[in-house]
Amino acid sequence: MVQPSDLARYRANLQDEIDSAALYRALAEVESHPQLAEVYRRLAAVEERHARFWEQKLREAGQPTPPWRPGWRARLLIWLARRFGARFVLPTLASKEAADRHMYDKQPEARATTLPVDERSHARVLGILARTARGGIEGSAVARLEGRHRAIGGNLLRAAVLGANDGLVSNLSLVMGVAGAELPGQAILITGLAGLLAGACSMAMGEWLSVQSARELAQRQLAIEAEEIAAVPEEEKEELALIYQAKGLSEAEAKRVAEEVMADTQQALHTLAREELGIDPEELGGSAWEAAGASFALFALGAVIPVVPFVVLSGTAAVVASLLLSAAALFGIGALITVLTGRSALFSGLRQLLIGLAAAGVTYGVGRLIGVTLAG
């Protein structure tokens, strides 16, 4: 007899497969590279087959089957993919697949099926896609993906969530600290705005330096690689052939591809940069100014939340409103993080809320102590 815990597992597996299938279908729709779009469609087909397997298990146990509707996390990722492109959500999907690659290994119903092998394969495929340059995927990688799946399927979202969280927690702590010292509402507002600007500028400058330093290092590495191609082309060709062999091509095929690539010096440099150095010569890690602007905006977005109530309120009402608004935002950010982690939205939201309020409570207490000491 099927136990209640088994039925709950069947339902969880079914929902997970429905979510994955919907995500891959959405990625196929927005992917401009036709070969990659086809890979996503095949991944979706495999996930749909998995979903039907768990649906059948529920029917055999006499249980109703839920409608094929993706959950809120999947719907959010689909919206982000349609808004910002497949590569925006790809690192999140790759991380999820990597975490779930052994999910069926110990489930007795799945042992005699291809489910465990399929999940491990999906993790490898998403890992390859997540590491692929934005401008396209190397022909060898496409060939490997196509061959495997004819039979079977720097993270922007993380940075956005954590950037806003940094601004919210740090400025809430600052605002509560000066509120604890019982400064006038106008002084708290000015302090909060100053903290917002100071923190956002600091984050932007740090991000600019980080990205610019990475770009300069990449440019230096490209220059060295270009010198090596000009000085010892045969050695570079052999190295490229070995890389392709390591990726699964036969020795003869690897040498043929390497010969074709090395025939064009510019193509050789770009290919070796991607394959050997992990550098996209066309992007070099992205624009330092764009990264700085995004960092500034995201930090400011979170930091402005605890300040807003002091624009229209004063005294205890402003402090309480700031805490309530910030508490709601903390819970929301904690719940949003579960898109990346897959954990319970309630658990993560409450954890984030408690951590943020604890930090605010400490600074409020310190501010209160300082204010009493100075007043005394």
- Unreliable residue runs: 133-154
**Portion of residues within helices:** over 70%
The total strand number stands at: 0
Could you spell the SSE succession in H and E letters? HHHHHHHHHHHHHHH
Residues in β-strands, percent: under 5%
The largest β sheet comes out as: none
Query: How would you sum up the global shape?
Result: flat
Describe the structure.
The structure is a single chain. This protein has 376 residues and is mostly helical. It folds into 2 domains: 4-149, Up-down Bundle (Ferritin); 156-201 and 296-375. Helices cover 79% and strands 0% of the residues. It is built from 15 helices and no strands. It has helices at residues 4-30, 34-60, 72-84, 86-99, 115-130, 139-149, 156-180, 185-231, 233-246, 251-262, 265-277, 288-303, 309-312, 315-341, 345-375. Helix 1 packs parallel to helix 3 and helix 7 (156-180) runs antiparallel to helix 8 (185-231). The radius of gyration is 26 Å and the shape is flat.
Helices and strands, with pairings:
Blueprint lengths: L3 H27 L3 H27 L11 H13 L1 H14 L15 H16 L8 H11 L6 H25 L4 H47 L1 H14 L4 H12 L2 H13 L10 H16 L5 H4 L2 H27 L3 H31 L1
Helix pairs in contact: 1-2, 1-3, 2-6, 3-4, 4-5, 7-8, 7-12, 7-14, 7-15, 8-9, 8-11, 8-12, 9-10, 14-15
Key features of this structure:
79% helix, flat, Ferritin, single chain, 15 helices, mainly alpha, 2 domains, 376 residues
